[in-house]
Amino acid sequence: MILLTSSLSSAQKCATALEEATAEPIVVAAALPDALAKLQAQEFSAVVFDQLLLDAAPDDAEVVLKHLGGAVPVYLNFALASQDRVIRELRAALSRRNRELIAAKREAEQSLRHELNEKMTALMLSCEMALQVPDLPELAETKMRAVDALAKEMREKLGV
């Protein structure tokens, strides 16, 4: 869902064009307090701001910008920008957001793999050391070998 913030009378027409171009629902806010209420109530992928609104109320703008969450901001002067430019800018911002989300996901996966790899290595070393204990009961040895085999299997599935 995309939030379009503009007080211009052509905002609804622009919202319709954006909805057709992006296949995402567009919500229109005519003022910054209205935009803030919508941002607090829902999650948006992008917020398209009419720069004139932001310039007219800088204090309100600062509050709204603090509540964007994961939404990517797009700043345009609607009095000067054509609908085509608004669509291009929004598409570029959504594409950028998508790339950033994919990169963040990859980074989180790699970090988790690295952390789990370290834990698996420690577990396997502990098993090996426990198996070297003299006079280890047979049942304990069997259990330690099973834990070691599971750790190796998990490590293999993690691809490390």
In brief:
By secondary structure, this protein is α/β, with parallel strands linked by helices.
Lay out the secondary structure.
Blueprint: E1 2-5, H1 11-22, E2 26-29, H2 32-41, E3 46-50, H3 51-56, H4 58-66, E4 72-76, H5 83-131, H6 138-158
Parallel strand pairs: 1-2, 1-3, 3-4
Helix pairs in contact: 1-5, 2-4, 5-6
Distance between the termini: 38 Å
Q: Which sequence of strands runs across the widest sheet?
A: 2-1-3-4
Shape: rod-shaped
CATH top-level class of the largest domain: Alpha Beta
Helical fraction: 55-70%
| H-E string | EHEHEHHEHH
The total domain count is 2
Could you state the CATH homologous superfamily of the largest domain?
Response regulator
- What's the total count of β strands? 4
Decide which structural class fits the backbone: alpha/beta
- What's the gyration radius in Å? 27 Å
Instruction: Estimate the strand proportion.
Output: 5-15%
CATH architecture of the largest domain: 3-Layer(aba) Sandwich
- Tally of alpha and pi helices: 6
CATH topology name of the largest domain: Rossmann fold
- Mean pLDDT, rounded to whole units? 91
Low-confidence parts, pLDDT < 50 over ≥5 residues? none
How would you characterize the largest beta sheet?
Answer: 4 strands, parallel
